[in-house]
TrEMBL record:
PANTHER family: SOLUTE CARRIER FAMILY 35. Its main location: membrane. This is Sugar phosphate transporter domain-containing protein. It comes from Arachis hypogaea. The keyword Membrane applies. It comes from the Eukaryota. SUPFAM superfamilies: Multidrug resistance efflux transporter EmrE (SSF103481). It is found in: Membrane. Keywords: Membrane, Transmembrane, Transmembrane helix. It is a multi-pass membrane protein. It holds the Pfam family TPT. Residues 1-112 form the Sugar phosphate transporter domain. The lineage of its organism: Eukaryota, Viridiplantae, Streptophyta, Embryophyta, Tracheophyta.
Length: 119
């Protein structure tokens, strides 16, 4: 929680100016959307809450396991996302991509087995 407390204001300091510079009239567009549909405020609040819980979950996983485990989980998540996108959206995957995802899954399995053996 302390890390999140220090990290969130720094993220605002760096990202808010970048957003205002890179996104044309973002404040005006957001206010216009809010006037047209008041649900946009709830969407933004819900999105913010989800982002908070994603960060909190990442910190808790790191605290209870290790940074390496968090990275391995991130790689596994990427492989799962690709499989889901292939199944649902029928996205094409090259042979090189398939070999990469296979290697990723194999690495996750090896890491899991290594973790079990060290306990």
């Amino acid at each position: 929680m302390n890390l999140l407390l220090y990290m969130a204001p720094m993220a605002v300091v760096f990202l808010l100016p970048a957003t205002l510079i890179m996104e044309e009239n973002v404040v005006g567009i957001t206010l216009a959307l809010a006037r047209d549909d008041s649900k946009i405020i709830w969407y933004l609040l819900f999105n913010s809450a989800l982002a908070y819980f994603v960060n909190l979950t990442n910190f808790l996983v790191t605290k209870h396991t290790s940074a390496l485990t968090l990275q391995v989980l991130g790689n596994a998540k990427g492989a799962v996302a690709v499989v889901v996108s292939i199944l649902i959206f029928r996205n094409p995957v090259s042979v090189t991509g398939m070999m990469g995802y296979t290697l990723t899954v194999f690495g996750v399995i090896l890491y899991s087995e290594a973790k079990k053996r060290t306990k």
